[in-house]
Write a structure and sequence with these properties.
Elements: H1 19-29, E1 38-39, H2 41-48, H3 52-65, E2 68-71, E3 74-77, H4 82-106, H5 109-127, H6 131-148, H7 152-165, H8 169-174, H9 178-194, H10 198-216
Antiparallel strand pairs: 1-3, 2-3
């Protein structure tokens, strides 16, 4: 990571125009720019080798997306308050529960196999301490369930929700045993999907989602 807090995607490759937005967003979603990290026009323009105009437009879009926020005259990656997290995860809980219910009804066995492989890859990422890869696989697990629901609008909405959920992961992954718990909870959801058990699947997903809110409010329940 460079001194300005930005890591280039590919050395020597400079994005132009609208690609600046894509590049900054990718750095946020892949946890190279964590919540609270300053993002400033001059430094970003210098880093990407463009004028300040496309950077300004990219920051305006990211502000509209809710991925950055103003910090005086400058910007920083958005830090969600406990209230923000509660609001976000109440909506996410409802959508994820619906995704599980529909996935039980509609998904074929090949999608279940994909979920099984994603959990195996999450275990590999955990063992190699690759948090960026683990985060990407975490998102992929949930969005694959949404894909199995066979509802394009639901998948679209959950994609947006998961982009904002990435803003909370810096703290989550720093909590003791959080990643092991996350893998275990994903496995519980998968087990219910394998059995086509809608009731258990929805209950396991809701428990998993509520754990994030519990963490940010200072308490965390765990099954024995």
């Amino acid at each position: 990571m460079s001194e300005d807090g930005v890591t280039p995607e590919v050395v020597g490759q400079r994005p132009l125009g609208g690609n600046v937005y894509t590049s900054i967003k990718k750095d946020i979603l892949e946890m190279r720019l964590l919540a609270g990290t300053p993002v400033q026009e001059v430094e970003l323009a210098s880093h990407y080798g463009v004028s300040r105009t496309p950077v300004r437009e990219a920051l305006r879009q990211l502000l509209d997306d809710g991925l950055i926020e103003r910090d005086g005259r400058f910007y920083r990656v958005k830090e969600l308050t406990p209230s923000d997290i509660r609001d976000l995860y109440e909506v996410r809980e409802s959508l994820e529960a619906t995704a599980v219910r529909l996935c039980v009804e509609r998904a074929d066995d090949s999608l279940i196999d994909r979920l099984r492989k994603l959990i195996a890859e999450q275990n590999d990422a955990f063992k190699s301490a690759d948090l960026q890869r683990f985060s990407a696989l975490d998102t992929a697990f949930h969005l694959t369930i949404a894909e199995g629901a066979g509802n394009a609008l639901l998948l679209q909405q959950l994609t947006v929700i998961h982009e904002k959920s990435c803003l909370t992961r810096g703290r989550e992954y720093g909590a003791a045993n959080w990643i092991e718990y996350s893998i275990d909870e994903h496995s519980r959801v998968l087990s219910a999907l394998e059995r086509r058990d809608e009731t258990i699947g929805v209950a396991e997903m809701i428990y998993h989602i509520r754990g994030v809110v519990d963490l940010h409010y200072g308490h965390r329940r765990r099954k024995a």
